[in-house]
Amino acid sequence: MEIDKVKELVQLMVDNELSSISIRTENDEITLRRPGKHAVTAASVEQVLATPIAQQIPQAPVAPQPAAQPPAASEPEVDEGLVPIPSPMVGTFYHSPNPDSPAFVKVGDKIRNDSVVCIIEAMKVFNEIRAEVSGVIERILVGNEEPIEYGQPLFLVRAG
To answer: What pTM was estimated for this model as a whole?
Structure first.
């Protein structure tokens, strides 16, 4: 799904005051949610962002994306039993919904797979990122307002 199509879907939601929309095709699946008046939450956008990369690489469309990360030297070492929460998109990382609010999570916090752990701003759209794993936050790997890449580990979680 092209980014222009995503923008069109977001505008459709705004124009019709929809709180969520889900689209599924043979190749793509996207769910957009609007929890507030000014925020749009995008989930399952890996397919949307992966499409241009997949078209350029003759191999399997999903497997190559992690290879597009920064060199392995900059990646943190993952301890045995720790599960990374990767970034589903390129953008700017935020620990909290606004500068005056506390961080969504801190080291030692227990999270569920549906817990919001951060916000990523991409193209002036603020996307709430959910953990998709249950456990305890062991490490936060990204600083507030840092640029991040697709697939970059954001948090390490001790699953459980």
So the answer is: 0.52
